[in-house]
Amino acid sequence: MTTEDTTAVRLAGVRLDRGRRTILSGIDLDVPRGSITAVLGPSGSGKSTLLAALTGELVPTAGAVEVFGQPVPQRQRALLELRKSIGVLLQGNGLLTDLTAAENVALPLRTHTKLPRPVIDRLVDMKLHAVGLRTAAELYPRELSGGMARRVALARAIALDPPLMVYDEPLTGLDPIASGVIMNLISELNDNLGLTSIIVTHHVHETLPIADRAIVIANGHIVFSGTPGELQASGDPLVGQFLRGEPDGPIAFDSATRTEAA
């Protein structure tokens, strides 16, 4: 089996700029197929910028980004095709408020397929059932709790059966119980659907139990890459400061604040 067969996402020597500012540099990362990889780091460290490179929203200044063995294209038509194979769960959910839960889940199916209405309805029912919300199909986003809205957004993200799922701060705004439900769902869907998942988050303790690999981004670079066990045993001061939430250390809080939009 070739490396391309076993690797879902690869970044090699990637540098990412926003205007004249370099947000990340020297980024080398391999995400194995079928794995759950946690991308950890403080707010403003560049985690969302990394996601923008994976989805083709941001073109690297240097280096290469590959998804399933193919370079992320820059031509719009090819990029749109690639994006159909990447499900994205946004931290703000992105649900359309004037559509029901079922209509929100159906949206990508109606936009990107020519399936007949009965088939789409059946698929929507299956996706809502997969996240435990079949009975909420006719509810509007304003009628959903935060955890329910996040699960509807997850059902919509998997509507097209993408082989790669990307989660952008999936626990933002959720209480501990809802957070546990979302983490369990991510793990179950990854296993049951044969997905590859990348979770971008600063919620370390909730994410590590379901992750196969973890990387930590700080000060514009990857400062750790390994298993969750290796992360927790690391003696690196950068890693230690982040895991313990210490305000003083090699990760400058002020610099993170200035790049918070990254």
Secondary-structure blueprint:
Layout (H helix, E strand, L loop, with lengths): L2 H4 E12 L2 E12 L3 E5 L6 H8 L7 E6 L2 E2 L4 H8 L2 E4 L11 H12 L4 H14 L15 H12 L6 E5 L7 H18 L2 E6 L2 H4 L5 E6 L2 E6 L1 H6 L3 H8 L8 H6 L4
Parallel strand pairs: 3-8, 3-9, 6-7, 7-8
Antiparallel strand pairs: 1-2, 1-4, 4-5, 9-10
Helix pairs in contact: 4-5, 4-6, 5-6, 6-7
State mean pLDDT (0 to 100 scale): 88
Calculate the terminal CA-CA distance, rounded to whole Å. 37 Å
CATH architecture of the domain at 1-85 and 203-262: 3-Layer(aba) Sandwich
Rg: 18 Å
Q: How much of the residues is beta strand, in percent?
A: 15-25%
Helices and strands, in order, run as HEEEHEEHEHHHEHEHEEHHH
What gross morphology would you assign? globular
Count of β-strands: 10
Give me the CATH fold name of the domain at 1-85 and 203-262: Rossmann fold
Q: Which regions contain 5 or more consecutive residues with pLDDT less than 50?
A: 255-262
CATH top level class name of the domain at 1-85 and 203-262: Alpha Beta
- For CATH, the homologous superfamily of the domain at 1-85 and 203-262 is named as P-loop containing nucleotide triphosphate hydrolases
